[in-house]
Automatic annotation (TrEMBL):
Gene3D superfamilies: Hypothetical protein af1432 (1.10.3210.10). Coiled coil: none annotated. Transmembrane segments: none annotated. CDD domains: HDc. Residues 233-428 form the HDOD domain. It holds the Pfam family HDOD. This is HDOD domain-containing protein. InterPro entries: HD/PDEase_dom (IPR003607), HDOD (IPR013976), RNase_Y/CdgJ (IPR052340).
Amino acid sequence: MSIPPLITFQEDFLSGKLISKEYVHFSEIDCPELDVWIGRVVRSISLEFLHEILFTILSELLVNGCKANGKRVFFKEQGLNLWDEKDYARGIPMYKDEFGHNRKRVFLALDHSEYKITLSTIFKEDYIEFKVKNNAKILPEEKNRILKRVQASGKYKNINDAYRESVDNEESSGLGIVLIHILLRNSGISNQFFQLVTTEDSTEVIIRIPKQLIPKESQTNIKNLLVREVNSLPPLPPQIQKLIFIAKKKDVDWHEISAQVEKDPAITAEILKIANSPLFGSHTPIISVLEGVKRIGLRNLESIFLTLGAKKVLNSRYAKQVLVWTHSFKTSMYARFLIEDRKKHLKLLEPAVISALLHDLGRMVLLSLDLSQVNQIRVLRSDDNNEISEWVEEYTLGTTHSEIGYLMSEKWNFPEEILDVIRYHHKPWQCKSRNNILCQIIYLADILANIGRGKGNYFTVEPEVLEYFEITTEKEFRDMQERFKIQFEEHREEYQNLLI
């Protein structure tokens, strides 16, 4: 006899076409398959910041469904009628004891039952919908308990409050439904996100995630505010513009450009600092501008001058630029490590190192604006309490730091490769130019550099990018990240003052 799958995953995208279907046992609910599946869904519509929250919510719903099905199998094994009030009252304490002491056996029994759970998602015009469907009819007692939990969840601000006043003292603590509501409510999602649908042969919980948290009119106003902010940025300093012009000349020589650099003591100091930094590898320290520009290379000087110009403008204008430059340097170093580690695209080493320095320019604007007028939302689970999650912030604003950075870099006439990196470093698959590989390098380096801040993991990376860089297992990914972390720590003192 064939055994039906306990849980199936389904993806139904805008086309309505079934993309994939996978089988997973309950013992594997906290598993790579679910994490990868959620990652694919949220990346497709730029809701990456909800990855961990949705994983927690959907795992909870799957566990609850399996517990309900386990109860049905257990009652049948004991010869009890689930729908008989006396049998139910007698059997529940027995099931609680069995579930508490022999949970694995309970779920193994499910593998040989007719019960299964389907987790699916479909994309609507204004929201994304997740459905957890159980092919078992819900009991009146179960339905009442769920509705009571939903109603009670409104009075709790966090899970600790709910824990202190347990909603249910019969079959479980009842915190699962409460947790779902707290997580979504604290992510700025209105109370219309939860629906329970029951029929004669199924029970379905529907979670709806809106694609926009604030009205389109408000988003338009905020976007206009940001565009005005970018348009108000001054041009790059005249001396920087002159250096960029010289660097672009076909017949420029080292002496001409070094002589021009030396006319500005501040730029001279910056060039020497960058030339001696780990961005360009480990070298014998140099003290002359001529040797400094030679080490940087004519090909890279335009981008370095652009970086110095952006630094001068932004550092004088925005208060939180230290956060961005610190991360940008780290991403730059990780890009170097990635290329050297994989031994792929060594010719892109220096363009990757430099473009990574500039990939997050747009975040300076977003992090520094007064957003008190916006209904800001925060991810409940955050390892960085000093900084609003950019994913949450951008979901609220209806724009992204990549879009803002792209506008800034266009204004300052950045070269095409840096424009593409700024625009596509979170979505390299959207880059259709020759800079696609460069965008992939920065994308992966950015994630690896962010892991220490609790952002991203192996399962949040686009699988095609992992495949391209021949990273086939989570262990391999973690080992790589640990190697890069050790390498980077060797340069911690150098990066702290490089662009600040």
